[in-house]
Write a structure and sequence with these properties.
This protein is α+β, with helices and mostly antiparallel strands and 266 residues long. Helices cover 41% and strands 8% of the residues. A hairpin with a 2-residue loop joins strand 2 and strand 3.
Amino acid sequence: MSVELAVELQRLEKERRTGMLRAGDGAFHLAEGAIASVDCRRTTGLDRLVVEAGVATTEDWRRAADGDPGHVLGRPRLETLVLLSVFDAAYFLLASPAVPEFQPAPPHWLAPVCQITPRALVHECARRGDPESGPWPATLVDRAPVVPVRRVRRQRVVLTGGQAEVLSAADTRRSVTGIARDLGRTTYGCLKAVRDLTVAGLIEPAVAAPAPVETAEPVAAAREVAESEPLPRRRTRRAGPAAEPAWEPVDKALLFRLRTALEEHA
């Protein structure tokens, strides 16, 4: 996990800053220091999750993103899906070695329904384990095709519904990122299923491709932000160990809601 990024998030929280913190292939959107939204090109966008879950239509979401969110903010399950989206994207961004860059901006329109402290975010991502451990490191979610084994060596394998869904979608071409977007699931959830299926002998271990393999069309909102706004020039920092962030106590109520959301979306 990037200590530098965690320290920067804590600094922005203390200063109650509002804007966008870019990191690698995504960004954290902050409102007075709290995290309102996170996007990452390797994960399924919130727009896809809400449409797949029936919380909003594509047109509803387009109108909300264009400045008319009133008819979406009060929808049931929206907070659940926002939490899933934020922790999903943050899991991959916090593993990025990129230097974070903050850019002031107006509050994100999801701020009224999502205010996550950096400590709660880091705590949950750390609980999920080392992104680079196991048979499928997180760096390969968009760079390795998910390939089912040709012959199952075990006579009986019991799968969960989510694992069966991911295994059925594995076609030797799509990456974990592509499967997650096509299914309307979180990338972390699909990555965990692929890891379990690999251990069970049903999926081949990951083999990195020279470039990102086939995925679904990236989330429109994330792509527009990434392409329309130029990246600020990275700062040059003096070498030396980064200080560990000193956190306030974690919000247990928020983590309980997240656990409930993960169970409902499994």
